[in-house]
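Progress report, Aim 2. The chain analyzed during this reporting quarter is listed below.
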Amino acid sequence: MKSDFQTMTMGELKKYVLEHRNDKTAFQGLMDRVDAQPQEQVYEEVNAEQFSALVEQHRRLQQD
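Predicted structure tokens for the chain:
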């Protein structure tokens, strides 16, 4: 069963992505949401350390 990423809050989606790190669709949904937000909202809500780790893991998965 696929989750409906469009109906999740930003916090719920971030938590889902952290718990399902191999779900590329969820990661793309998160990236689309991040891109759609004004910069000041993104930086207020994102834990930079967790986000950086998530991005790095996604990059490694893309190389495999």
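The longest helix spans residues 48-63. The chain is about 70% helix and 0% strand. These observations will guide the mutagenesis work planned for the next reporting period.
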